[in-house]
Design a protein that fits this description.
The chain contains twelve helices and eight strands. It is of the alpha/beta class and about 350 residues long.
Length: about 350
């Protein structure tokens, strides 16, 4: 039997009968709903719900999107992503669509159901080991993004994802940004794997640990890579800073909450005159530096990003499931806090 959360007309953002594409909250709600559409596509497949019984279509049709393509994992045949096309009816009374996406490429996260959980958890493990880029699922996703960009270079394309799916969207967005193509990205509960410093209640202890971590990381970076600083045209981290993905995090979600401290700490280090140290620390990881010291190549950790538009849901969540859920991001916006972080 379907849960309430799967049924759009019981849990979806029904208030968005007319989307204002210039409104950040409306854009967020639509992007989250399209990700939910991917979750329900896979649940429809698992439960063999077809035709009138399928629950997924309202999650995109309500906002005047059409399904262009499903992205299917080549290992377990599960649906992990979808490409949507915005097809609004011609109407002089409708709100302006100049800020709307032409296409949205959305990715779901882990589904803990027998038909997909095994492969999803393997992807989670690859992500934890910083090896998502080596998986066939990501290769399929990345090729889909490249193909859409190549075929629609003059059109607005969004990336959207939740949890594991947000990691895939972030990695795809990073790869495109390195080529000079900056796609708008909506990343819900993006994973940030590190020591859970953000969960420490004592602010002085928390700040002390972050400063110590920055000093150690920056010191290792100098020891391993030397003091030579590349200019902005050579430094990929500086070049990547032009891309500003939208991150949506919940402080009670230990999977993504470290993004809050990651960006706040950068600001504090600049305020105390230690911005140079933090510039080194923020684009390196201790694991990556050790790998470099041993002569092994290592991909930069996915969570190390220079710039972001960070939205924090300050509503107290009763449990981890609520704090990590996609459903929180299409609801009322009165408890959201926003801050723009630009690397410079």
């Amino acid at each position: 039997m379907a849960s309430e959360r799967e049924i759009f007309h019981r849990s979806g953002p029904l208030h968005l009968t007319a989307v204002n594409w210039k409104n950040d909250h409306d854009r967020r709600s639509v992007a989250a709903s399209l990700v939910q559409g991917v979750y329900i596509l896979e649940r429809d497949r698992q439960e063999k719900r077809q035709g009138p019984q399928a629950l997924a279509p309202p999650w995109w049709e309500f906002f005047q999107f059409q399904m262009v393509r499903q992205l299917v994992d080549d290992v377990d045949s599960s649906i992990f992503g979808a490409i949507y096309e915005f097809k609004p009816p011609a109407s002089p009374s409708s709100l302006s669509t100049s800020e709307s996406p032409h296409y949205v490429i959305a990715f779901r996260g882990t589904i803990r159901k027998p038909h997909s959980v095994s492969q999803d958890l393997k992807l989670d493990l690859h992500l934890l080991q910083n090896g998502l880029h080596r998986t066939s699922r990501f290769e399929i996703a990345m090729q889909a993004v490249r193909n859409m960009v190549a075929a629609n270079q003059d059109k607005n394309i969004w990336l959207s994802g939740h949890s594991l799916g947000s990691a895939m969207a972030m990695l795809a967005g990073k790869n495109m940004a390195k080529t000079g193509i900056f796609l708008e990205a909506f990343l819900f509960n993006p994973p940030f794997f590190s020591a859970p410093i953000e969960r420490i209640k004592d602010k002085k202890v928390k700040q002390g640990l972050r400063i110590a971590s920055s000093l150690i990381t920056a010191g290792l970076a100098v020891a391993v890579k030397g003091t030579h600083q590349r200019n902005s045209f050579e430094d990929p981290f500086v070049y990547l800073s032009t891309w500003v993905p939208s991150l949506f995090v919940n402080p009670a979600d230990h999977i993504c909450s470290e993004y809050i401290g990651y960006f706040e700490h950068r600001e504090k280090m600049k305020d105390i005159g230690a911005g140079g140290i933090e510039r080194l620390a923020t684009q390196n990881s201790i694991h990556g530096l050790f790998m470099t010291a041993m002569g092994k190549e290592s991909e930069p950790p996915l969570h190390l990003i220079p710039s972001a538009a960070l939205t924090i849901n300050s509503i107290r969540s009763p449990d981890f499931v609520g704090a990590h859920g996609i459903h929180q991001w299409w609801g009322p916006d009165s408890h959201f806090k926003f801050k723009l972080y630009r690397y410079n």
